[in-house]
Specification:
By secondary structure, this protein is of the alpha/beta class. Helix content is 39%, strand content 13%. Helix 1 packs across helix 7. It is globular.
């Protein structure tokens, strides 16, 4: 059964101000150059990094952070980090609003995303996801042990793994219940050195003044291409706040751990969104 979330109201229509296509071409062209430079640098550095450091990416991960910061700057979206991002290996969990979350979270620090296996097969996006070290998992219960072993190996390499416990993206105006499935794998990592913690992170996307507050949200059956073009062509942009909460010790109960992290993420949302 699909876990895709569908809003009760249709997505917002983002108006096209004069100069829309000029902004699309100008911003899109520069973003393509930045991503292309990042891919070339990563492929080149990885040739020496892989045999020397294995799964660890001390050289290429900073390239990913730089690319994501540049993309947000080119778009004109202000980016602010509140609190202290998790240091060392561990897990990070966040609410999921948009494809833009990838840039906002990577720009805040070095993290490796945990994504569904289907993403690896998406044209273009799958290649980029594999290139930056994304961990791909399936929803099959029989694969749980293999997933736990894979995540533990990544943590042993000093990585910080990030996943979206809602299991779907929303319009940014609400928080869906956290699914506890992946928390079981995270909880099992408590015996890995330095990994006995998980940090909840709240993403708050603020639309520019006068725009629909859901403008950055990407959910349901919305087309990626049309939403990308709409964001590229916006005359004025808003901001994203990455709110890092205190790390939570890994407990014995995955459901309790999921509930604790959900409460922390919800507390970081603007008051009007907390009850939704």
């Amino acid at each position: 059964m699909s876990v895709t979330w569908h809003a009760p109201d249709p997505p917002p229509v983002i108006p096209r101000a004069p100069g829309h296509w000029r902004r699309v071409a100008w911003r899109g062209g520069r973003i393509a150059l930045v991503i292309g430079a990042g891919v070339l640098a990563t492929l080149t550095l990885r040739l020496a990094e892989r045999p020397l450091h294995g799964a660890a990416r001390p050289w290429t991960q900073p390239v990913t952070v730089w690319v994501c910061r540049r993309v947000l700057a080119i778009l004109g979206i202000a980016h602010a980090v509140e609190g202290t991002p998790l240091q060392g290996p561990g897990a990070v969990v966040a609410n999921h609003v948009s494809w833009l979350d990838i840039f906002a979270l990577n720009a805040a620090g070095r993290v490796y995303f945990v994504a569904k296996a289907e993403v690896a097969r998406w044209p273009g996006i799958g290649f980029l996801a594999r290139l930056v070290g994304t961990v791909f998992i399936t929803r099959e219960a029989r694969a749980a042990r293999a997933h736990a072993a894979l995540l533990k190996a990544r943590l042993a390499a000093g990585q910080r793994l990030l996943f979206f416990p809602e299991g779907t993206s929303t319009d940014g105006m609400r928080l869906r219940p956290f699914k506890s499935t992946l928390f079981e794998a995270v909880r099992a990592l408590g015996d890995a050195e330095g990994a006995a913690r998980v940090q909840p992170v709240t993403l708050v996307w603020d639309a520019p003044e006068g725009a629909d507050p859901r403008v950055y949200g990407w959910w349901g059956d919305m087309e990626f291409g049309s939403h990308l073009i709409a964001i590229l062509g916006m005359l004025r942009q808003g901001r994203v706040r990455v709110i890092c909460h205190a790390p939570v010790p890994l407990g014995a109960d995955r459901k309790a751990l999921a509930a604790t992290c959900e409460a922390a993420v919800r507390a970081g949302l603007p008051e009007a969104r907390r009850g939704l």
